[in-house]
Design goal:
four-stranded mixed sheet, 11 helices, 384 residues, Spore Coat Polysaccharide Biosynthesis Protein SpsA, Chain A, alpha/beta, nine-stranded mixed sheet
Length: 384
C-alpha cells in the first residue's frame, strides 16, 4: 500500500516544526513514503512556508503546496482528503499534533483491514479519554482487541481509503441539513461552519458507520491556539503509544464489545438486556433529550417512566455496571411505554467524584480561585 502523509498547516510555525520532527523520528516500512505539506494562504504566513521548504524528509519524497487563495479549514481539509484518490489511501495530520513512532504501521493496518467493510467510515489515530460533550472522563470497554468503534469522526489524526472518502463526499455534495437532527449531539451541531468534522460525524450517524479507533493513541493533541482555539488547551493531551508493533488484532463490528454512538454511549448493551438494537436507548452521561413513546431507556436522568431496574455507578467504564449487573440507584432502566412519577434525586457530587476520582476541599478552592481570576482577566482583555 502506498499511503501518503498529508500535513495540514496554516499559521503555526512552532506547531509545524514540532509535528515534522515527530514524523521524521517515526518508524516506516520503507523509505518511499510520500509527504505532502499543504499550507493554506492568509497572506502573512510565509514563515510557515519557509519551515516546510527547509524541512529535510528522511523517509521518501516531499512536496509543499501553498494554496493560491485562502480556503478556510473545512475546504482545506477536504481538499487534502481528496489526495486519497491518487493512492491507496491518505493520512491527514493537522499541525498541532504529535505522532507516535508507530503511527504509520497502525494507519496502514487499519486501512487494509477496513477495505470492503462498509460500516467503517475512516481510521482514527487519536484515542479519546474525555467526553467532549460534558468534559467527563471516558474510556472504551477493554475487550482484548487493539481497536474500538466510535460513531464520531476523528480530526486529530485520521486516515481514509479512496472509497471511504469518496462515499462521504458524495453524501456531503448533496448539501445535507443537520441543524435539527436530534441523533447528532447538540454540541456538534453548534460548531462553526468552518468545521468539516461536524459534517463527517453527521454522515456517520445518518449512514450508521463508524471510525475505527486505537485503544492506545498514536497521536496526541497540543491544543495550540488556532482556527478553533483562542488559547493553548492541554485537555486533549493523551498518552502516546511508545512501543513498536507492526501487526494488530482488530475486531469486526459484531465481535467488538467496544462500540459507541456519537454521544460516547455504548451500542452493545441491548445484547446484555436481550433486546433488539432499536429497542434500547443508552444515556449513561445524560446528554440525550429526545425519546420515543415505546421501547426502553437506560439513563442517569430522573424521568417519569416506569423503572424496571436500577444499577449502580462503580465500575469503569460506566457500561460495565450494566454488563455486570451492579446494584445501586445511579442508572435507571425505563420502560418508555409506561408513565410513572419518580421520587429519586440525582447525586451530583457522587457523579462528579466518580469522574474526577478525587478532589480535596483545598484543591477545589484553588481551582475556583484560578478559574475566576482567569475569567475576569479575559473579560478585561475583551473590553480593552
Amino acid at each position: 500500500m502506498v499511503v501518503p502523509i498529508v500535513v495540514v498547516a496554516f499559521n503555526r510555525v512552532h506547531s509545524l516544526e514540532r509535528l515534522l520532527y515527530s514524523l521524521n523520528m517515526a518508524d516506516y516500512p520503507n523509505n518511499s513514503i510520500p509527504l505532502i505539506i499543504s499550507i493554506d494562504n492568509n497572506g502573512k504566513n510565509r514563515d510557515v512556508l519557509e519551515v516546510a521548504n527547509k524541512f529535510k524528509w528522511r523517509h521518501g519524497t516531499k512536496k509543499v503546496k501553498y494554496q493560491e487563495t485562502n480556503l478556510g479549514l473545512r475546504k482545506h481539509v477536504l481538499q487534502c482528503g481528496a489526495i486519497a484518490r491518487d493512492y491507496d489511501g491518505v493520512i491527514i495530520l493537522e499541525d498541532d499534533l504529535y505522532v507516535s513512532e508507530n503511527f504509520y504501521h497502525f494507519a496502514r493496518a487499519g486501512l487494509s483491514f477496513s477495505k470492503a467493510k462498509e460500516y467503517i467510515g475512516g481510521i482514527s489515530l487519536y484515542n479519546h479519554q474525555l467526553n467532549v460533550h460534558n468534559s467527563f472522563a471516558f474510556s472504551p470497554l477493554e475487550d482484548g482487541y487493539d481497536n474500538w468503534y466510535f460513531q464520531f469522526a476523528s480530526s486529530w489524526g485520521q486516515a481514509w481509503t479512496n472509497d471511504q472518502f469518496d462515499n462521504f463526499v458524495t453524501w456531503y455534495n448533496n448539501a445535507p441539513k443537520i441543524d435539527k437532527e436530534k441523533k447528532i449531539p447538540s454540541y456538534v451541531r453548534s460548531w462553526s461552519e468552518k468545521s468539516w468534522l461536524k459534517y463527517f460525524i453527521a454522515y456517520l450517524v445518518e449512514k450508521d458507520k463508524y471510525f475505527l479507533y486505537p485503544k492506545i493513541s498514536l497521536t496526541t493533541n497540543f491544543g495550540d491556539s488556532g482556527t478553533h482555539m483562542n488559547e493553548v488547551d492541554s485537555a486533549f493531551q493523551v498518552p502516546l503509544y511508545f512501543g513498536r508493533k507492526k501487526t494488530f488484532e482488530f475486531s469486526d463490528l459484531n465481535s467488538s464489545l467496544a462500540v459507541y454512538d456519537a454521544f460516547y454511549e455504548s451500542n452493545i448493551l441491548h445484547r446484555v438486556l436481550n433486546l433488539e438494537k432499536d429497542q434500547l436507548i443508552v444515556d449513561l452521561y445524560g446528554e440525550k433529550d429526545s425519546f420515543p413513546e415505546k421501547g426502553f431507556l437506560i439513563s442517569k436522568q430522573i424521568l417519569n417512566y416506569n423503572i424496571e431496574k436500577t444499577f449502580g455507578r462503580f465500575l469503569r467504564p460506566m457500561e460495565a455496571n450494566i454488563i455486570e449487573n451492579i446494584q445501586g440507584r445511579d442508572f435507571f432502566y425505563y420502560d418508555l411505554s409506561k408513565k410513572r412519577e419518580n421520587p429519586f434525586k440525582q447525586h451530583k457530587l457522587k457523579e462528579m467524584l466518580f469522574h474526577l476520582r478525587k478532589l480535596s476541599h483545598r484543591r477545589s478552592y484553588e481551582i475556583f480561585l484560578a478559574m475566576s481570576k482567569n475569567r475576569i482577566e479575559n473579560k478585561l482583555k475583551i473590553k480593552r
